[in-house]
Design a protein that fits this description.
By secondary structure, the chain is mainly α. It has helices at residues 3-10, 37-42, 44-77, 113-117, 147-159, 163-175, 184-196, 200-212, 222-234, 238-250, 254-266, 270-281, 287-304, 307-315, and strands spanning 24-25, 33-34, 101-104, 109-112. It has a two-stranded antiparallel sheet. Strand 3 (101-104) and strand 4 (109-112) form a beta hairpin. Residues 1-8 have low confidence and may be disordered.
Length: 322
Amino acid sequence: MKDEEVKTVQEICANCGKAGSNLNICNKCNEARYCNAICKKKHKKKHKAECEKAIQRAAELHEQELKHATELHDIELFKQPPTREDCPICFALLPCMDSGRRYMVCCGKEICSGCAHAPVIDHRGNRIDKVGERKCAFCRVSETEVNEENLKRFKLRMKKGDALAFYGLGCNYFRGRHGLRRDIDKALELWHKATELGCAAAHRNIGIEYLRGSSKSTRKDEKKAAAQFELAAMKGDAMARAKLGDDEYKAGNTDRAIKHFLVAVSLGSEQGLNYIQALFNAGHVSKDDYASALRARQAYLDEIITNQRDEAAAFGDQYKYY
């Protein structure tokens, strides 16, 4: 049927059969059309049964669309996480723990805790306490404790579109470090920019703030928090993935929780493995899934453990990486 014919059929009054344009539409089913309110009123009893059927059809179609959208969303949510990066110095996998990595604002590189700790110790094994005497393990530029210089380096990296620079400066504003006044709203502004550039950790931090609702720009909103955690998880954030699993478990969705925890373990989350173990003991996780989680955790540890990182971790918790 041609478009013109469809238009003609759609614009025939259901009561008197006259054709017209801009006819009065039934506000319940949005299908039947009438010349005017009089025809609509006259046809009300005859149209009632068909109207109810149309409403039911629309509800079923809407339900199918929601189901399809949910299926597509879950495919995206639970697909294989993005490839994790290696430390550009030692070439071992970067740990998922925040304390296991360091962002170097001088060069924009993210290096592991072991390589970050190495320049702190001189060739005699003595600690170098003066910041100006320490150098970046990657680019060899001297570290700085001058707040203005540190901020200048962040801004330079931000001009180059460095997501971690926006994220790192946001963290400094959030904690009030390096001479900056604590400003949660400014931190959120920078984190939002970092998310636009692909930073998973920024999504996670924004999600946490939506749960807290402690800022003017981010009121408490659990749905928005969950959306941010999902975006962080899909970009490979292990902590956000474990949080989603915990939320699903508390909501009684054990199967979905297990899926999240298994992905979290593959990303290196010890918390995810603890959940899997607890659910296995409770009879909710199969022996095969539990064994798979244990293997994934061990494979992750095999990739991240190095002597240099162990030495850094022994030096202080700020270098802990698993």
